[in-house]
Amino acid sequence: MRRRKKYDLYFVITLLLLSIGYFVYSHMSAESRGVENYAAALEDYKKSDYEKAYSKFNKVPSGSTLKNSALFRQARCATNMGKKELSIKKYNRIVRSNSKTAILPISEYNMATLMYELGDNDAKKHFSKIIKKYPTSDYAIASNYYLGLIQLNKMPKNENRINKAKQKALVYFKTYLENAPDGRFAISCIDEIKKLNINLTNYDNLLIAKAYYKNGEYEKAKDYLNKTTLAESWSDFAKNEYKLGNNEKGNYYTELGLKQHSVNTSQEDVFEVIDNYISTFPSRKDGILKLYSLNLTQTGADYIGYLNCNEVVENNYKEACFRTLYEKYPDGQFSADSLYNVFIAKYLQKKYYDAQRLGFLHLKKFENVNSSPAVTYFMGKIAYKLKHYDSANLRFKQVIEKYPDTYYAYRANYNLYKDDGVLPFLELNEKPVVFPYKKSLDNNLVVKLAYLGDYDLVEELCKKDKFIQSWIAYEKGDYTISAVLARNAMEELEIKPTFEDLRWRLVYPTHYYDIVDKVKGSNNPIIIESIIKEESHFNPKAKSIVGASGLMQLMPSTYNEVVNQHSLPTDLSKEVANITAGSLYYTNLKKALGNKDLYAISAYNGGIGSVNNWFSKLIYNDADEFVEQIPYPETKNYVKKVFRTYWMYGNIY
Questions:
Q1: pLDDT attached to residue 159
Q2: Out of 38, 277, 616, 620, which could bridge 625 as a Cys pair, Cβ 3.0 to 4.6 Å?
């Protein structure tokens, strides 16, 4: 009996192992077949052969993680073939699956819109469900538009109920305009509101005006702005007049609003209006001085004061200006930068103890602001000047650890390892730009779709992920858009990833580096690549207001001079010619300026005449003191950007 029980146990274990093996095999088989069939179907879909694609997507097995994506694609195929009922069925299968993936909300939204088009009463239920389950999604915002239409389509006969129904529809349309004033349904919402033929409040009229403005309908925006009060709409009046080219009127509204009404206006709007105002003057300085002379006290006064201080060139006056600004607005938006400017002034005056006291105050009061890396770095330099070498090295290490993607991390690295030279990186090991995540929270679905080349669906599922949007732009060849999207996304991250993170390659791609490396001459190729990135963001067709063009933004006269001087062949492609001429021009600058990259980069932006002038006027002992005293804010920032980019390329590649 015991032997029989033993055999029974062996049998059960064997059966269990066989079952597990079969399950694993069938799952792996389903996944591999799913990938194979999905890829084949996608090829037909891209060729607009929707019948073939529909049939092949149907072959993706239920056990595959791609099944819901295949159902989604089948629904799209059916829609394109004019079979809306069939499309609804496919979307409904996804919705009923209660999948946790990002494909569910878009599926339910697409299904609801098709149901609405077919007059199905259940559309309302699904739109309401989307708003409840995914309140911050684009699909929830768009659902408000459809719910407004549904409300109007079922208008009651009783007059009191008609008014209530109109008000309810108005709320839906207004909700859409509040959340998406430049959305695809914005103008349609306005048209529907007009049809309601009901009295609108000041807020309603302003909402419509803002939507018209966002959609470039400036004359229509003006009509609705005129139905509002100036006290609540002055910034919109001003912005709209600037867009219409009426600078005089725009300036009138700006001055009036800043004097009387800016206290109730958002800082963002106030700053935008101030920038528009300044741009109407022959020079920025003229516009800033005009605003400064108004002696404003409401919102925006600190911004005008900050702009004015930045225009001051003489160091003593600059320090006094920023000190006054800091004392007047100690907790304002520009207080950290104002205190930093007083701090750096003391450093440049060699008043190290005064500077140190201000540095301690800055680091204690302001945490992780734009000026934090600079203050931490110069606190290290002060410690070194005072012969506190361990403390100095600790500060330099803090900069590299806390702010690794900054210009000051590059400078801190130099101060820690001076024996390695000013430019520690001499060449790049190119790595391809790939999908920015090794894993996805979506059970690897997005990753699989990305590598299968289903960019449209990935874009739909990841609308709010700028890194993925950047990668899609890259895959489509829109390199400039890709680099800008990735840069903006990285700036939004409070904690930056390590340099091995794949997202950095999107921010700092190595476009044209193969050309740069061939034509670099005696230049460091990473410096030339960095100049290209900062000058044009890899757009070979880039052209500035003053006429500089191409990847390295050369003026026509400069380009022709270099071409003639070096007898460059005329059959070079535009990209090769531009980079070659730019590299040779940079070489000329460098030779004329003591063979120093710092001065050559400064001259590339500010002009060689300016740099030679600074040599005679500025008092400095090292590169840091020179950079911090560059009188042109644009050139100072440019130098820091190029060296920061150089530093980042070196670390990433």
A1: 77
A2: 620
Match 């349609």 to its residue by tokens.
188
Listed as own residue / partner, the contacts of 595-601 with beta carbons closer than 8 Å and 24 or more positions apart are 597/422, 597/423, 597/524, 597/527, 598/422, 598/623, 598/626, 598/627, 598/639, 601/527, 601/531, 601/638, 601/639, 601/642, 601/643
Rounded to 10 deg, the angle between the 466-475 and 479-492 helix axes is 170
Distance between CA atoms of residues 324 and 408, nearest Å? 27
- Counting Cβ atoms within 10 Å, is residue 119 exposed (0-12), middle (13-18) or buried (19+)? exposed
* CB count in 10 Å sphere of residue 269: 18
Residues 135, 139, 141, 144: is their CA dihedral positive or negative? negative
Phi, psi dihedral angles at 543 (to 5 degrees): -145, 130
> Helix (H, G, I), strand (E, B), or coil: what is residue 543?
strand
**Which residues, 6+ apart, have CB-to-CB distance to 634 below 8 Å?**
605, 606
**pLDDT at residue 98, rounded to an integer:** 76
How many C-beta neighbours within 10 Å does residue 365 have?
A: 13
Among residues 449, 493, 363, the alpha carbon closest in space to that of 42 is found at 449
Nearest Cα residue to 410 out of 419, 392, 402, 422? 422
Give the residues across from 554 on adjacent strands: 549
Phi, psi for 549 (deg, rounded to 5): -140, 165
Query: What would the two tokens of residue 244 be?
Result: 């219409």
Q: What is the topology classification, in CATH, of domain 231-420? A: 1.25.40
List the structure tokens of 610: 């300016």
484: three-class secondary structure by DSSP = helix
Radius of gyration of the chain (CA): 31
The tens digit of pLDDT for each residue in 496-529 reads 999 999 999 999 999 999 999 999 999 999 999 9
The conformation of residue 549, written as its DSSP 8-state character, comes to B
Summarize pLDDT for 347-383 with one digit per residue, the tens: 999 999 999 999 999 999 998 999 999 999 999 999 9
Structure tokens, 282? 């022959």
CATH of domain 513-652: 1.10.530.10
Residue type, 525: P
State the DSSP string of 490-537. HHH-SSPPPTTSTHHHHHS--TTHHHHHHH-TTS-HHHHHHHHHHHHT
**Residue 205 DSSP SS3:** helix
- Strand, coil or helix: 26: helix
Tell me the domain boundaries of the chain. 231-420, 445-507, 513-652
**How far apart are the C-alpha atoms of 581 and 470, rounded to whole Å?**
30
As a residue count, the chain comes to 653
pTM, full prediction: 0.86
Residues 294-306: tens digit of each pLDDT: 999 889 999 999 9
Window from 106-120, 362-376, 429-443 with minimum mean pLDDT? 429-443
Q: What is the mean pLDDT of residues 420-430?
A: 84
Tell me how crowded residue 388 is: count the other CB atoms within 10 A of its CB. 14
Whole-number mean pLDDT of the chain? 92
Task: Please say if the pLDDT value at position 258 is more than 60.
Answer: yes
